[in-house]
Amino acid sequence: MKRLPAFFYTLPSGREPVRAWLKELSLEDRRIVGEDIKDVEFAWPIGMPLCRPVGRGLWEVRSNLTQGRIARVLFCEHEGRMILLHAFIKKSQKAPASDLGLAIERMKDIT
How many CB atoms are closer than 10 A to CB 64? Predict the structure, then answer.
């Protein structure tokens, strides 16, 4: 049984940004990210190396993709649900402030 079921954040236009991002990934990378999200759903609360808090109510799912790339899916917990707010491929040691800011803005829409 899922302890924290995942739901996609939906923009007012009906677009789901994390779902759209996932569809742009290769089938293998999509499988990796999906498995990592599933592991968080079933094992919540879970810590490193798969999941960690990034502050202000945000958490990240940490995925190691093919070709040595690293992906992050930012989410918040809301009413017993894991809301997938934003996702990106990491290109530097620290998550860009713009990515965190976007996730925080989306989180404000639902809380």
Answer: 13
